[in-house]
Write a structure and sequence with these properties.
Blueprint: H1 17-23, H2 26-29, H3 41-58, E1 64-70, E2 73-78, H4 88-93, H5 116-122, E3 124-133, E4 136-143, E5 146-150, E6 154-155, E7 163-170, H6 184-197, E8 202-205, E9 208-210, H7 216-227, E10 236-240, E11 243-249, E12 256-261, E13 264-265, H8 271-288, H9 294-298, E14 301-307, H10 336-354, H11 356-390, E15 395-396, E16 413-418, H12 420-429, E17 435-440, H13 452-457, H14 459-468, E18 481-485, H15 490-506, H16 508-512, E19 516-520, E20 524-527, E21 532-535, H17 538-547, E22 552-555, H18 564-570, E23 576-579, H19 588-596, H20 600-610, H21 615-618
Parallel strand pairs: 1-8, 12-14, 16-17, 16-18, 18-19
Antiparallel strand pairs: 1-2, 2-7, 3-4, 3-7, 4-5, 4-6, 8-9, 10-11, 11-14, 12-13, 15-17, 19-23, 20-21, 20-22
Helix pairs in contact: 1-5, 3-5, 6-7, 8-10, 12-18
């Protein structure tokens, strides 16, 4: 039995604010990342600083924000009131310090927790804050969250406008933002969203000017133009006190919403988005006064909502989902649900009565959705009957599933393989308690631009959909990890693309919520009589050749060549998985139309321009 470590008062430690942020950055900014995804931490740092400048604008102070990102460094200058000089040090370095706790000064702001700028400071290699107020200024500089210099209050010889200047460089130390890089397209999307939500504000970012006259109307208009989507009727745009909405129908299936609170993009929705979605369906149903399904009414809807809430409660420091139930924390405040529902019911109903040309198009879209749903129901019922008779023969199931309360539910996974030889090896070597196997026969259907009834009529995708239980939602998802296990050759890569396309078309949240992975299997085996090393890259192969004397090298051409005994090594505790990642802001239709559409010449040119030749393979 292992010796129990001594546990005394000396083991109890209290970390100062900066120390805690650097030790547990995920609590403050979500995931770290290297900048390759829009929700990586370095963009949260930018957002936390700009949020403060936006709050100044929303309180009527400063109509311009200058943002510069260059060589990994960020500069944000606003022209608001400026942080009070005597409290500048506290406001950027001491947790839970700020004016956002005083609702008289910041009534409906985003930065409420007194944490944001302090987190930026703590997680930066260099950070400085300078405030300009009424001819005086003060500049404070930090290094890795530790104070380096303070000018104290001095006369501002440059006679600068009032406001605040924040400059920082993320810390690239090990364990933080290693090898990070800012990507312009992600920052531009952020700036564009800020402009949509704050009409009258101008953001100058790296020489580009972002402003909006029509708020959410501009957001949907520009989104449609970018994605080459035609709305079925002019966008409905309605504004009231503390609320703005926009919506239309398109030919696409499903629903798509953009939601914001106090200027913050709530990419995971929340109480306001749920209320908006419900209110759209019920208001339109009551207007037509017919026995319509809400799903048919909302099918094809693209909508946006922006809400101002007093002291909003978010479900995390990164503020991507609203948790507030009420519009204000005061007793007797109206609920978010009632506020949104009352506005939509009144304003949207009035609009529909005044625009019969729009309601005519809307009614036809709902009828078409109803017909398509009923046709799909017929096909689905046939598919279910066929599915029952087949007993999903392609599935070798496991005993424990993700949609249960079992303590091992998070360990559940399903390997999607190509061919019987690969599935046979994995089936023999898997852990039957938590690992399932689904075997494909050849290449699956290209799901891009296929209707849902085509999926039900396709035996393989129908059975795969049933195995995962992802029809309609992820509520009954049976496996935590969906692992695509194909050969590392051209055919295997093509199958990966087809499967990922299927998930993106018919269950994008399976990818968005981090359930889809690619199994990494070794390309080489390097061994002698005493040592065996499996190598996943040429670099690992070369290292193994140096470490092993008189080596024998085997090149694995496909998964079927790997024996069950060896496979147990690759899918056990040392399994290597590459997550399939898509950002919440990524336009799925753009990706699929380029990679899976009919634009063959365009793809050929892309391949030629980006072709890399592996010289080791040519030797």
């Amino acid at each position: 039995m292992a010796e129990i470590a001594e546990y005394t008062e000396e083991n109890i430690k209290t970390l100062e604010g900066v120390e805690h942020i650097r030790l547990r950055p995920g609590m403050y900014i979500g995931k770290l990342g290297d900048g390759s995804h829009s929700d990586d931490g370095i963009y949260v740092l930018i957002k936390e600083v700009i949020d403060n400048s936006i709050d100044e604008f929303r309180m009527g102070a400063g109509k311009v924000i200058d943002v510069t990102v260059k060589d990994g460094k960020v500069r944000v200058r606003d022209y608001g009131r400026g942080i009070p000089l005597g409290k500048l040090l506290d406001c950027v370095s001491i947790l839970n310090t700020g004016a956002k706790y005083d609702s008289k000064v910041f009534k409906k702001s985003v930065g409420l927790n007194g944490v944001g700028t302090k987190a930026v400071n703590a997680l930066s290699w260099k950070f400085s804050a300078q405030s300009f107020r009424n001819g005086e200024t003060r500049r404070i500089e930090f290094k890795q969250g530790v104070l380096a210099s303070d000018t104290n209050v001095i006369q501002d010889e440059s006679k600068s406008q009032n406001g605040t200047l924040i400059e920082f460089e993320p810390d690239s130390s090990k364990g933080l933002f290693e090898n990070y890089a800012f990507h312009d397209d992600f920052i531009e999307t952020m700036m564009r969203n800020y402009s949509y939500l704050n009409t009258g504000l101008t953001i100058n970012y790296n020489g580009q000017k972002f402003n909006s006259k029509n708020g959410l109307l501009d957001l949907l208009t520009e989104t449609f133009a970018k994605d080459q989507i035609e709305p079925l009727y002019p966008i409905i745009h309605l504004k009231g006190d503390d609320i703005e909405i926009a919506l239309t129908h398109t030919e696409q299936n499903g629903e798509d919403y953009f939601s914001f609170v106090n200027g913050q993009h709530t990419i995971q929705g929340g109480t306001h988005q749920a209320a908006y979605r419900e209110a759209i369906g019920r208001t339109i149903k009551e207007f037509f006064n017919k026995n319509q399904e809400l799903a048919d009414i909302r099918n094809g809807v693209v909508g946006a909502i922006a809400l101002n809430v007093e002291e909003p409660v978010f479900e995390s420091q990164t503020k991507v989902k609203l948790g507030s139930r009420d519009m204000a924390p005061t007793e007797g405040s109206i609920s978010v649900n009632k506020f949104v529902n009352d506005f939509v019911k009144q304003e949207l109903d009035d609009y529909l009565h005044k625009h019969p040309e729009i309601t005519e198009v809307m009614a036809k879209k709902i009828q078409d959705s109803e017909k398509e749903r009923k046709a799909i129901d017929v096909v689905r019922n046939k598919a279910m009957t066929k599915r029952a008779s087949l007993h999903n023969r392609k599935l070798r199931d496991c005993r424990i599933h993700y949609n249960t309360n079992h303590e091992l539910r998070d360990e559940t996974c399903i390997f999607i393989t190509e061919g019987d030889s690969a599935s046979g090896s994995i089936t023999k070597s898997r852990n039957a308690a938590t690992q399932a196997v689904f075997s494909l026969r050849g290449k699956p259907l290209n799901a891009y631009k296929k209707k849902q009834k085509d999926i039900y009529e396709n035996e393989e995708l129908n059975l795969l959909q049933a195995a995962l239980d992802i029809e309609g939602s992820l509520e009954n998802l049976r496996y935590n990890k969906v692992i695509i296990a194909t050969d590392a050759d051209v055919d295997g890569m093509h199958i990966r693309m087809l499967l990922v396309s299927f998930f993106l078309m018919y269950c994008p949240n399976l990818i968005r919520e981090g359930h889809v992975y690619i199994l990494q299997t070794p390309l080489f085996r390097v061994r002698n009589k005493k040592i065996t090393k499996y190598c996943y890259s040429d670099e690992e192969r070369l290292a193994a050749l140096k470490a092993i004397s008189d080596p024998e090298i085997t090149r694995f051409k496909g998964l079927g060549e790997i024996s069950p005994d060896e496979f147990s090594v690759f899918i056990g505790k040392d399994i290597r998985l590459e997550p399939v990642v898509i950002d919440h802001d990524t336009q799925i239709n753009d990706i699929l139309s380029f990679y899976m559409g009919d634009n063959t010449p365009e793809r050929q040119n892309f391949i030629i321009e980006n072709l890399r030749i592996d010289t080791d393979e040519l030797r």
